[in-house]
Write a structure and sequence with these properties.
The chain is of the alpha+beta class. The protein is about 35% helix and about 25% strand. The chain is globular and about 45 Å long. The protein starts with a strand and ends in a 7-residue tail after the last strand. The structure holds aspartic acid.
């Protein structure tokens, strides 16, 4: 069989007591999701189907900041963003300011496959979900105690955005990213996760998904920059990921992380903060599940 590979992330940012207390749950959640996606790839599923299915699992897991468990904005409401991109077709779909939709990543896929647009926001996104009979949930389904506390404390450890990149047996790559955004944001704030080229990008060179402070990711157009370094400079994937994260062009100090896969089934990841929840199975079949920087004592 041709090479296959998959990587996921469950957010990057500062460490927190909640993350330490739920270390096992996070590790299990990451492992289950990445193994499920890998199994689909073994069975011949397309990279696009795999990234959607894998992100749905993470959206349903309340430990992560996407779907159920999403961050709350300054009015205590959930507004979700998601994007998906097929690197072979160079087709993409994205949604922002989404409410009620259980799995925003599937709505992003509908934008890609069922409309002539790339990005649909707000009430139009909800209308599209209804039109396509996607599952809707009452607003309180998405809200979990951890996020209520973060909003009260005016802290954002949130950073539990989820993403998946995959290489399928036909040599095609895809990327998907989904998030509840940053805690205590102004209503209507849209982050990088749903912005093609910033928090999500795939082409014939690689597929990438990002997490962290969205404003910084948008300004640096990170996911596309990695693809450009591969294409124009011939950089190896890991070197390109490290280069982009270490050379963030911006005065704002922020937390940023990313995962990436290339056409040879190599996995790249890089982050500039305490932790990035992540898991991968590369072309050799090696499984890696980790949260902290290598060498962190919790391991
Ligand atoms: N990047 C996301 C955003 O800014 C948040 C995150 O990755 O946790 O909306």
């Amino acid at each position: 069989m041709n090479k296959i590979a998959i990587a996921i992330h469950g957010g990057a940012g500062q460490n927190s007591k909640f993350i330490e207390a739920n270390y096992k749950g996070y590790m299990e959640g990451l492992k289950t999701a990445v193994e499920h996606g890998h199994e689909l790839l073994i069975n011949g599923a397309s990279a696009l189907d795999v990234v959607e299915a894998t992100v749905r699992i993470l959206e349903d897991n309340p430990l992560f900041n996407a779907g159920k468990g999403s961050a709350l904005n300054s009015e205590g409401m959930v507004e979700m963003d998601a994007a998906i991109m097929d690197g072979h077709l160079l087709a993409a779909g994205a949604v922002s300011m989404v409410t009620q939709v259980k799995n925003p990543i599937s709505l992003a896929r509908k934008v890609m496959s069922n409309t002539k647009h790339v990005h649909i926001a707000g009430y139009g996104a909800l209308k599209l979900a209804e039109l396509n009979s996607l599952e809707l949930m009452p607003n309180d389904y998405f809200i979990v105690e951890r996020q209520i506390n973060e909003l009260k404390e005016e802290k954002s450890y949130g950073h539990g955005t989820v993403g998946c990149v995959a290489l399928d047996s036909r040599g095609n790559m895809a990327s998907a990213t989904s998030t509840g955004g940053l805690s205590n944001s102004l209503p209507g704030r849209v982050g990088d996760s749903c912005m093609i080229g910033a928090g999500c990008y795939a082409n014939a060179h690689c597929a990438s998904s990002c997490t962290g402070d969205g404003e910084l990711i948008i300004i640096n157009v990170i996911a596309h920059k990695v693809a450009a370094l591969l294409e124009l400079k011939g950089m190896p994937l890991q070197e390109a990921c490290d280069y982009v994260i270490r050379n963030l062009e911006n005065p704002i100090n922020g937390d940023v992380g990313m995962i990436s896969v290339d056409v040879n089934g190599n996995i790249g990841f890089s982050f500039n903060c305490d932790r990035m929840h992540r898991a991968s199975i590369d072309h050799t079949g090696e499984l890696v599940v980790d949260i902290y920087q290598t060498g962190h004592s919790m391991k």
